[in-house]
Amino acid sequence: MIRLLPAILLLIVGLYFVVQPLSTAEGPATPDLLTITTPQNTQHVFLVEVARTPDELSQGLMFRQHLSSDKGMLFLFPEPRIEQFWMKNTLVPLDILFIDRDGVIIDIHPMAQPHDLTLITSKTPVLAGLEIAGGQAQERGISVGSRISSSSWAEWQARFN
């Protein structure tokens, strides 16, 4: 049994990293269920982390080794503004969706590549951004004109209306 102890401890530590929620450097961002409704009225649900603080906004999904097709991160910006993303220290491809103050997706940057330092810039001021696994927007038919909804978005959006 004593010879098995290191293997058991390694298994426990390994399981911790597999099942822990997505988290930022400060700890887990607030989780929320987010629904995207396409112009064809198809709905897609994602479990997202909500980034609000400067640290959460700057950390994003950096250093994540995997992002499930039903997960993502919602970035809530302090005011509508031209926003920029990059893929520094990001290990997985992402679709980046830019969202206006009405919750409408106004631009999509598909398949942003890991480690790319090119700035990905919104074309107009946005109040939020959403990162989902690369290719999911196309696969699910999520397009410009699709609309997001979630409890955290409704609460955030109310501050500006």
Which short descriptors sum up this protein?
7-stranded mixed beta sheet, 21% helix, Jelly Rolls, 161 residues, two-stranded antiparallel ribbon, globular
Pattern of helices and strands: HEEHEEEEEEHEH
Mean pLDDT: 87
Number of domains: 1
Strand content: 35-45%
Fourth-tier CATH superfamily name: Protein of unknown function DUF192
Number of E strands: 9
Oligomer: single chain
Unreliable residue stretches: 4-27
Q: What's the CATH topology label? A: Jelly Rolls
Discrete helix count: 4
> Which architecture name does CATH use?
Sandwich
The level-1 CATH class: Mainly Beta
Largest sheet: 7 strands, mixed
- Major sheet: arrangement of strands: 6-5-8-3-2-1-9
Helix content: 10-25%
| Cα Rg | 17 Å
Alpha-beta classification: alpha+beta
Explain what this protein looks like in three dimensions.
The chain is of the alpha+beta class and 161 residues long. It has one domain (23-158): Protein of unknown function DUF192 (Jelly Rolls). It has helices at 5-19, 54-59, 136-140, 151-158, and strands at residues 30-37, 43-51, 71-81, 84-85, 94-99, 105-112, 120-121, 126-133, 147-149. The strands form 2 sheets. The protein has a 7-stranded mixed β-sheet. The chain has a two-stranded antiparallel sheet with strand order 4-7. The longest helix has 15 residues, at 5-19. It is globular, with a radius of gyration of 17 Å. 30% of the residues are buried. Residues 4-27 have low confidence and may be disordered.
